Structures are given as structure tokens and as C-alpha cells.
């Protein structure tokens, strides 16, 4: 991430990186990760096409993780859920279908 050198030190100092979370994450437990949004996909929910949610691919120096942002959280946070943003995400760990992911409760931009 050449454009994110200023965040490199912050990401390196964090105790919990994405790879470690994938190893130790417990279903429904809350964790905080930091990383860069590599992909941001807005989709309509199955129940109501007018209601939007988002799938993010967030990466740090150790790896990447899917982050699911449900409609209520997405509405509040969509202005910062942009590709290339460096963010801190608090959420619950999930291993649905054997794939590790984080269900976002809150997201804030890293300054």
C-alpha cells in the first residue's frame, strides 16, 4: 500500500491483525481491526430492494477479511465506507459457511 505509508506504523503496532483474528476469532465475539478498504460493494437486501447494505474487503499488512455492513449501520456510515479509506472497525466475528468475516457494529476513519 504505497499510498498508505502513514498508516503502516499504526497497523504494525496493533496487537490484533487480520490473520490472527482468523485464527483466534470466536463466533459472535467482538473484535476491533484496522485496515484499508480494498473493495466496497453495495447491494440491495433480499427482503427489500430499496434497502442497501455493503460487503467490504478490508486488508492490513497480514491479510484481508470480508466485513459485512448491515442496512442500519450502513445508513449511518456510508460516507466513510469508501475504497482506499483506512478504517478501524468494531464488530462481531462470524464463520458463516466456514468463511471468516466481521459483522460491523461501528466504523471510524483512521486519521
Please, could you describe this protein's structure?
This protein is of the alpha+beta class. The protein is built from 3 helices and 5 strands; from the N terminus they run ααβββαββ. The chain has helices at residues 5-13, 18-24, 71-77, and strands at 30-44, 52-59, 64-69, 86-94, 101-109. Strands 1-2-3-5-4 form a 5-stranded mixed beta barrel. Strand 2 (52-59) and strand 3 (64-69) form a beta hairpin. The model has no long low-confidence stretch (mean pLDDT 91).
- Catalogue the unreliable spans: none
Radius of gyration: 14 Å
Q: DSSP helix count?
A: 3
The overall pLDDT, averaged over residues, is: 91
* Strand count: 5
What structural class results from the helix and strand content? Answer: alpha+beta
Strand and helix order: HHEEEHEE
User: What distance lies between the first and last C-alpha atoms, to the nearest angstrom?
Assistant: 16 Å
- Assess the beta-strand content as a share of residues: 35-45%
Dominant shape:
globular
Which descriptors would you attach to this protein?
111 residues; alpha+beta; five-stranded mixed β-barrel; 3 helices; 21% helix; 42% strand; globular
Task: Give a concise summary.
By secondary structure, the protein is α+β, with helices and mostly antiparallel strands. The protein has 3 helices and 5 strands; from the N terminus they run ααβββαββ.
Write the layout of secondary structure elements.
Blueprint lengths: L4 H9 L4 H7 L5 E15 L7 E8 L4 E6 L1 H7 L8 E9 L6 E9 L2
Parallel strand pairs: 3-5
Antiparallel strand pairs: 1-2, 1-4, 2-3, 4-5
Amino acid at each position: 500500500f504505497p499510498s498508505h505509508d502513514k498508516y503502516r506504523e499504526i497497523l504494525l503496532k496493533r496487537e490484533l491483525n487480520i490473520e490472527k483474528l482468523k485464527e483466534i476469532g470466536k463466533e459472535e465475539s467482538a473484535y476491533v481491526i484496522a485496515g484499508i478498504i480494498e473493495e466496497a460493494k453495495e447491494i440491495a437486501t433480499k427482503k427489500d430492494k430499496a434497502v442497501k447494505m455493503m460487503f467490504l474487503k478490508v486488508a492490513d499488512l497480514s491479510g484481508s477479511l470480508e466485513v459485512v455492513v448491515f442496512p442500519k449501520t450502513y445508513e449511518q456510515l456510508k460516507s466513510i465506507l469508501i475504497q482506499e479509506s483506512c478504517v478501524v472497525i468494531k464488530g462481531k466475528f462470524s464463520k458463516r459457511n466456514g468463511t471468516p468475516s466481521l459483522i460491523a457494529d461501528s466504523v471510524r476513519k483512521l486519521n
